[in-house]
Specification:
Multidrug-efflux Transporter Regulator, Chain: A, Domain 2, elongated, 3 strands, about 5% strand
Length: about 110
Amino acid sequence: MGALSRKNLSSDRLFYKIGEISELADLEPYVLRYWETEFPFLKPRKNKTGQRVYTRKDLETVLQIKDLLYKERYTIAGVRKKFGESAPKKNSVSIRTIQDVRRKLKEILNILK
């Protein structure tokens, strides 16, 4: 993990907020938000209050992206290709969208009860 200290990555933590990931990866939060728009495979969930919630796997992905872009000098398209993604799919529906629709439908069902 390089410069990341093991004490910051408590093994019992399941989720991290964007500020924590930003600090651990030494990146500004706006960079992480931008990467979410460029890399379909980087999609942290959002909690009930709408905050991004990253998993350890998301953190590992962020660190891999950072390494590819900054150390290995890949382009954004090159990183997508490396991860097996050609480009953002405009006509596909994300899992997050499906989850949001499902949640809203459940809310409507509760109102109707």
